[in-house]
Amino acid sequence: MDLISWQFLGGDLLSPISTIMLIVVAGFTSMISAAFGAGGGLMLLVIMASMLPMSVVIPVHGLVQLGSNANRFLFTFKHIDGAMFVYFSLGGVIGALVASTIVTSIPLELMKIVVAAFVLYLLWGVTPKLRETSKLWRVLAGLWTTFISMFVGASGPLVGSCLYVNNYNKLKFTATFSSCMTVQHTLKAILYGAVGFAFWQWLPLVMLMILSGALGTWLGLKLLHRISSDKFKKIFRLVLTVLSLQLAWQGIMAFSI
Length: 257
Hints:
11 helices
């Protein structure tokens, strides 16, 4: 493939090797999310952030994750918690509207630390006093996580920790998580499009990453069926804990420089 073709995929910011790597990694991280509930999106964000500026990473990552989660949502649709989806979406719209007023003014590093602390609290701390099945809790979960998503890119651990307290079985968790993330990334695409991000320049690469992600989702769901519910919950909790600690460390190190 000639240089012009590579520039069509990644502009002037990606080499051929980096482009291929991102396409492969998109499939692998989708498999991780499908098999263990969450975590792939944050892994992909960290890798993309090492190759591209954050001003490009967050919107492009959001489009790729929109495709990945929509695929997973379609594969597991019949297991979704409909009430959670509706109230989470309502809160998500409110959160996106609030974020649109301050999208360029919040420090990314601070938000990383806040997200990590909140996830760790939900995983290991005291269960929130609001009943996890209440309408208010579900709306607030959508509002808070969508607002945060606009600034940190990968809110999967945050959304996952909010759903974790519902004690879903593994298929219901995967379906509900994917539906909520699909809504969230759709809102993100709308917001960044409204503020002027040129998505069309990145669409060829995004489409290839989504196709790779669809294959990864299929493989991950095959693996999911082979994992017991108890083992799934333990692995999911461990993955989220490690990723949250990594996110907090990134934020702390950025402040210390």
